[in-house]
Amino acid sequence: MLQVRDLSTSILKRASFTLSAGECIAVTGSSGAGKTLLLRAIADLDPNDGVASLDGRDRSTIAAPEWRRLVGYVPAEPGWWAETVGEHFREWQAAFAYLRKLGFSEGTRTWPIARMSTGERLRLALIRALMVQPKVLLLDEPTAALDAASEAAVESLISCRLEAGVAVLWITHDEAQANRIAHRRLVVEAGRVYESTEECPAT
Amino acid sequence: MPSYIALSYWDLAVASVLVLIDAALSIIFGLRIHRSLLVAAIRMTVQLALVGLVLTFLFAVVSPLWTGLAALGMILFAGLEVTQRQERRLSGWWSYGLGTGCMMISSVVVTVFALLTALQPTPWYDPRYAIPLLGMILGNCMTGIALGLHTLTASLVSRRASVEAQLMLGATRWDAAAPVTREALRSALMPTINSMSATGLVSLPGMMTGQILGGVPPAEAVKYQILVMFLIAGGTGLGAVAAVLGGVLRVTDGRHRLRLDRISAAKPT
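C-alpha cells for the assembled complex are given below, as produced in the milestone run.
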C-alpha cells in the first residue's frame, strides 16, 4: 500500500520499506535517532528526496494537501489553532462518536484547549486525524502521556482502524506495546532506518 | 515679501540650546545618552541641510531623471530601515528585496495616482509635489511593512505547531497560515488607523502645521492633510498586503510545507 524508497533528508539516510493495508509497523530507536523525522518526511512536511507512493500513485503526482489527507500524521506534541476543542473538528457529531470511546463527554466541545492535559490533547489530536479518514496513519508516541486505561482505549481504537484496512506506522518506546500492536519492526538509529530482522547496516 | 517668517542661523543656534540642556540632564542623571543624543542632533542637522540642497537642486532642474533618482534613493534607504527593524529576517536577498520591492510598488503607484488625479501639477512629475508626497507615503508604508513582516516571521516561528497542525490535516499553505497572516496584516495597518483617528484631536500633523506656518489658510492645509492621510492608508494597505503575502509565499513551498529554515535566527539583543 505505502511504498517508501530511498527516502532521505539532511539527517535521515536513505530509508526504504513497504507497508501493507491493515498492517502495523512499530518504529523504535533511541531519542534523537530520527524517528519523528522519518514520519515527517513521509508526510512531506520537511524537504526530502526519494520516492513515496500510495497504492501505486507516486507522491509527486499528488498535491501535498491531498497526500496529507491520505497519509495522516499525528505528532507527539500536536498544535492547536483555535481556543476551544470543538473548533478543531469540522463535524462535531461524527467526531464525538470517537471521542466518547476515549472518555470525553459532550461538554468537551466548549472546553478551552489551554485547560486540557497533555494526555487529553494527544487523544483529541488522534481523533482529529482520524476524522480525515486517512489510508495510512503515522503516529508519534500517541500513548506517551496516557494512563493504562486510556492507553488500552487508544490501542483498541487503532486496532479497529487496522481491521478496516488502514495501515499504521507507530513510534513507541514501549517494548510491550510494540509486541502487542505491531506486525513488524523498523529500527531507527542515527538517521538510518532498517527492519529489525536485518543487521544494522555498517556505517 | 514671503508670507512666512524666515529663520536666521542665529534662531537655530538659540533653539539648539534645548538639546544641550537634554545632554546636560543626561550627564546629571547618569543616563549615558548625551553622546548619542548629540550625534543624533548633528546627524539630523547635516542630513536636513543636505536634503535642503538636494531639493533646491531638484526644484530648479525639474528633470524626470533626477526626480526619479531621488525617489529611488529614498526607497532604497527605506528598504534598509525595514530590514533593520526585523527581529527575524527572511534569509538571503529576500529580507531586503521583499520589503523594498513592495514599498516601491505601493508608494510609487499611490504617489503617481495622487499626482495624476488630485494635484495635477505641470509637469506631472514636478519634484515640488512628487518628492514630499512620496516621502510621506513611503515613511508610513515603511512602518506598516516592517510591522507586518516582523509579526509574520515572529508568529510563524512561535506558532509553528498550530500552523503545521492544519497542514497535517490537509490544509493548503494559505489556509494554514491564515490566522498568522491576518494577525500580521492587522498589526501592519493598526498605526495608520490609530493615526487617522487621533489626528486633529491629539496631534496636529507635521505637514499641515508646516503649511500653516508657511502661510497657507488652515482650511486649505486641512484639505491637503486629508488627501495625504487617504494616500497613506492606501499605500500602507497595498504595500503591507503585498509584503505579508509575499512573506507567506517565501516561508512555505510548493509542497505546502512550512519552511522556517528560510527565516534567520533571532537577532542577539
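Chain B touches chain A at residues 159-172, 179, 253-259 (CB under 8 Å). Chain B has nine helices and no strands. Further analysis is deferred to the final report.
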